[in-house]
Amino acid sequence: MPHQASRRLRVLLVEDDPADAYLVTEMLSEVAAAVRLTTATSMAEVIDGGLLDGQDCVLLDLNLPGTSGGLDGLRRLFAADPLAAVCVLTGTDDEHLGVAAVAAGAQDYLVKGRVDGTLLHRSIRYAVERRRAEINLRRLREAELRAAEAARLERGLLPRPLLGDGGVSARPFYRSGRRTNVLGGDFYDVVQRPDGTVHAIVGDVCGHGTDQAALGALLRVSWRALVLAEVPEPAVLPALQDVLTTERDDPSLFTTACTVRIRGTEASIRLAGHPAPVQLRPEPSPVQATIGMPLGVEADASWDAASVTLPPQWVLMLYTDGLIEGHGPQPPDRLWEHGLIELLKAERDTPLDDLPARLVEQAEVLNGGPLADDVAILLLIGGQGR
After folding, report:
1. Where are the beta strands (DSSP E) in the chain?
2. How many whole angstroms separate alpha carbon 227 and alpha carbon 159?
3. Nearest to 87 by CA among 121, 118, 113, 47
4. How far apart are the first and last CA of the chain?
5. 278: left (phi > 0), else alpha (psi -120 to 50), else beta?
6. Separation in Å, CA 90 to CA 16, 64, 301
7. Helices 210-228 and 236-247 sit at what angle, rounded to 10 degrees?
8. What SS3 class is residue 256?
9. 377 in the Ramachandran plot: left (φ > 0), alpha (ψ -120 to 50) or beta?
């Protein structure tokens, strides 16, 4: 809303008494109030005519035809526009109604016969400023609540790796997509069982927003529970699909996932509609694995495992498709997997601690701006492959 000093305030007077309406008009005119006044004689005229649109303040008579008296008119006005700045007009014998109206949300009350132009103009200006301050405070509180909710969800989506001293380390990375930085449903986790076997997952719930983030967090926690309960690795993805289909509100919602089990130098990789991991050593190359259906698409889906022998000083990079769906070197072509391999080759000397952020930075340069989707990256490092 432009500052009131730069334009005339738009004020709606709702008053059925022509004499009182005339007095209000004259009082504002006498003090040269910077007000553009519109008049109406009933709440039906206001609501049916859409007269509240664009108004800065409403001067409302509490005794209007078509209302049951008391605060009925005020309640109907707030039902039509909960954020309206309202000054109520009362008679000398019902000042208590003015006080009750303020308690019900009005910014001020004016007693007919006891107000002049200066007081009326000041009351209008103060009502507008107070309502603006209340709206800004409400927006701030809502933003704080959204930030707190996002932080809680992010903790669920992006946990600390649960690794012992078995020679495998992890470098997780997450970047919200979209210019609004809305948290999405990308998630990752890595857990080491007591026998030294390392399990990892990267997943992506389709869509953006808190519902998808909450579902992603639930899937991530469920995966960790399944792994720690030593559920056989082939049964983990089917169990996650059961969780997804039970908890999702939309039956068309699906999730892609990549799971990895590492025992010594042998890795077992399963893909549910997800990009394959990339081996960074000795040269960047995608793991050759069959991509099965995403979770939540086919009830009887199965996911075959690809067995990979890891080289000395190995590094596996798991990632979500937000990293490769932006524009590549030749727009409108996308970066895709082959473009990612070229980026990794160009960044072969970048320290692993810095590599995920550097890849996203370069992908954004090629895209010509922020990536549209979230990006989760998980580097798994073994054999001191630093």
Report:
1. 9-14, 35-40, 57-61, 86-90, 108-111, 168-175, 184-192, 198-208, 255-263, 266-272, 278-279, 285-286, 291-292, 306-309, 315-319, 375-382
2. 15
3. 121
4. 55
5. beta
6. 13, 11, 70
7. 150
8. strand
9. beta
> DSSP secondary-structure letter at 49?
T
In this structure, what token pair is assigned to residue 66? 């078509």
> Over the range 328-355, which residues count as b (16 or more CB within 10 Å of their CB) and which as e?
beeeeebbeeebbeebbeebeeeeeeeb
Helix (H) or strand (E) holding 360: helix 355-367
Q: With contact defined as beta carbons under 8 Å apart, do 187 and 217 qualify?
A: yes
pLDDT (tens place) for every residue of the chain, 386 residues total:
444 445 789 999 999 999 999 999 999 999 999 899 999 999 999 999 999 998 999 999 988 877 777 788 899 999 999 999 999 988 766 778 888 899 999 999 888 888 898 999 999 999 999 888 888 888 887 767 666 665 665 555 667 888 887 689 999 998 877 554 556 688 999 999 988 999 999 999 988 777 888 898 899 999 999 999 999 999 999 999 999 999 998 999 999 999 999 998 999 999 999 999 999 999 999 999 999 999 999 999 999 999 999 998 899 999 999 999 999 998 889 999 999 999 999 999 999 999 999 999 999 999 999 998 889 999 999 976 54
Whole-prediction pTM? 0.65
**224, burial (CB in 10 Å: exposed 0-12, middle 13-18, buried 19+):** middle
Report the amino acid identity of residue 208.
H
Question: For the CA atoms of the chain, what is the radius of gyration?
Answer: 31
Distance CA 180, CA 175 (A): 12
Q: Which domains does the chain have, with CATH numbers?
A: 4-138 (3.40.50.2300), 158-382 (3.60.40.10)
Distances (CA, A) of 228 to 23, 109, 198: 78, 65, 11
CA distances from residue 216 to 162, 186, 230, 320, 355 in whole angstroms, order as listed: 18, 7, 21, 13, 25
Determine the Cα–Cα distance for residues 279 and 33; give it in Å rounded to an integer.
73
Q: Record the tokens describing residue 57, joined without a space.
A: 């303040």
What is the three-class DSSP state of 73?
helix
For residue 26, the one-letter residue type is E
